[in-house]
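Subject: design request, 343 residues
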């Protein structure tokens, strides 16, 4: 039986990318039943661009966040399968068809989500290339049956939301992890390279680090929740990489303690050298992948930005752990009234 697909796109100030996003949806090899754009209080031409395409535009002018936007789309959608797509992404042509094939082949599957393409949607420079290549690498590395779902490009049967409710509207970041906590005990989750989207990633270092810090605030509570449920979250960095970065960033303190104990000369550089070596070894394949794509000079830049992102990650995780927060409780059901959402 042919399944109908509703594509739900939360959008906030997405004038730069929304046209490319919508064009990719209407170019799918499997025609979609409907496209719903939820305008999350945009102040640019987002709504005007949406009106140029045969889609449904929702939004009351209020910025409520990506969870509320997706819930609004869920409430309005009429398709058998809901395909969530971020407004700063453009799908490869066979993505919807591939997701449906995987769902049909496995009735226990509650979500099929995809990877970020290794090339950005628009080329805005080396920081964006860092983010794009890293995003592709860690998702592709984890492809298969997983216990974490990311909804930047993801297909979910309608019945899943009838059973579990919608996204937690108190969260504007890490809402994927909170929903995964409820999803994984009941359904299989599949991550596949057959679903792929080109992403317009952050291209400035400062905002990238701020975003990394903000998303890491819920990392420790999320990991605790997954461990309590006997699950393992899919993460962007390996434990070895995070530990090596923590040692490297803490190496000046180690060197200072050695100096207090009377150590002098080149021995004081040993902690930093050991940290650099450990971080390099922990990320050797990733750095090699970056070098193969963009050359040796870029790989050196990539490594520096990667370390800076680890510093932001560790800071956010530490602050989140000290706050002692836990994932907020989930809503009972998606809202029945239209609103606005997006990041």
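Subject: RE: design request

Done. Sequence follows.
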């Amino acid at each position: 039986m042919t399944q109908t697909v509703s594509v739900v796109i939360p959008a906030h100030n997405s004038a730069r990318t929304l046209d490319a996003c919508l064009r990719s949806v209407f170019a799918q090899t499997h025609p979609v039943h409907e496209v719903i754009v939820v305008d999350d209080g945009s102040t640019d031409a987002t709504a005007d661009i949406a009106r140029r395409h045969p889609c449904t535009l929702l939004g009351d002018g209020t910025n409520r966040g990506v969870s509320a936007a997706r819930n609004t789309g869920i409430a309005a959608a009429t398709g058998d399968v809901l395909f969530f797509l971020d407004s700063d992404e453009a799908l490869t042509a066979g993505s919807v068809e591939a997701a449906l094939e995987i769902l049909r082949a496995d009735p226990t599957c509650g979500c099929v989500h995809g990877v970020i393409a290794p090339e950005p949607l628009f080329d805005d420079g080396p920081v964006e290339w860092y983010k794009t290549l890293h995003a592709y690498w860690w998702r592709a590395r984890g492809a298969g049956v997983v216990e974490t779902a990311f909804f930047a490009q993801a297909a979910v049967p309608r019945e899943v939301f009838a059973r579990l409710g919608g996204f937690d509207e108190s969260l504007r970041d890490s809402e994927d992890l909170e929903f995964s906590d409820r999803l994984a005990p009941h359904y299989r989750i599949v991550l596949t390279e057959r679903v792929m989207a080109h992403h317009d990633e952050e291209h400035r270092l400062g905002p990238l680090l701020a975003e990394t810090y903000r998303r890491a605030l819920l990392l420790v509570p999320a990991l605790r929740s997954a461990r309590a449920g006997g699950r393992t979250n899919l993460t962007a960095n390996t434990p070895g990489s995070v530990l090596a970065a923590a040692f490297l960033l803490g190496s000046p303190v180690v060197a200072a303690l050695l100096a207090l104990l009377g150590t002098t000369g080149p021995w004081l550089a040993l902690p930093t050298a050991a940290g650099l070596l450990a971080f390099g070894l922990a990320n050797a394949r990733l750095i090699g992948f970056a070098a193969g794509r963009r050359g040796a000079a870029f790989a050196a830049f990539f490594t520096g930005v990667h370390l800076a992102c680890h510093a932001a990650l560790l800071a956010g995780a530490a602050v989140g752990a000290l706050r002692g927060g836990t994932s907020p409780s989930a809503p009972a059901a998606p809202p029945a009234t239209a609103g606005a959402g997006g990041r």
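The radius of gyration is 21 Å.
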